[in-house]
Amino acid sequence: MNDGVLAQNEALEQGQRLSQVERVVDAYIAPSKTFDDIKRDASWWMPFLLLAVISLVFSYVVLSKIGLPTLIEGIIHQSAALEDRMANATPEQAVAMRHGMEMQFKFMYVAPVFFIVIGLIVSGIFLGTANFVFGGRATYKQMLAVWFYGTLPLLVTSLLTIVTVFAGISGDSFNIKNTVGTNIGYYLMNSGTPQWIVTLLSSVDIMAIWAALLLTMGVGTVAGIKKGAAAMVVFGWWGIYVLFQTGIAAFTG
Length: 253
Fold this sequence. Notes:
Blueprint: H1 2-16, H2 20-29, H3 31-40, H4 45-66, H5 68-77, H6 80-88, H7 91-106, H8 111-133, H9 140-150, H10 154-166, H11 195-202, H12 206-223, H13 227-252
Helix pairs in contact: 2-3, 3-9, 3-12, 4-8, 4-10, 5-7, 8-9, 9-12, 11-13, 12-13
């Protein structure tokens, strides 16, 4: 009888297992299923692969359709401090500064590497906070999987950007730091509003909030902590990041 019960439980568990594709789909429509499945299998290669592919397509479309000269002009005009530096620079200095910005844009093609590095760092921060501060019991690999599945909504921003660029958005109105109107700051970029306020309000982004809510659910699930504690982990560190970015914007203008 015990063998029969064990076999039945094993069959039930097999039926509840999700494929990698199902986990990605459920991250959007039924995230609790995805995060529950991460406790069984903490693999994260599928969402990372999607992020990598979409980021490469994003980079190609932006660089080829908008163009480096327009992108660089946009970066210069979005920063009063940088505009002043360019205006007061010698011709040789201005050329060197533009060349440096060109190289930064070309590094867009190595975005997947940055995704890995960021994922490793943030997952470690979340793991340490959830486990040592709130008594969680997640593993590092589980938290890394939560990060990559939880940030899948950010793919929507990249896809919307690709669509708008192909639709013929003006290069003069394109901002590489804020590409689509999913946040309040997007609509204030050229209104004369102080840059630090634009940066702060840009964080009130639908996709970013969606991702933060998914991460909260994921951290709570794999660490076995309450929703309030998981929210403190995710939104607490996000708040620190937003304040840091806002401070930089206030300092640099």
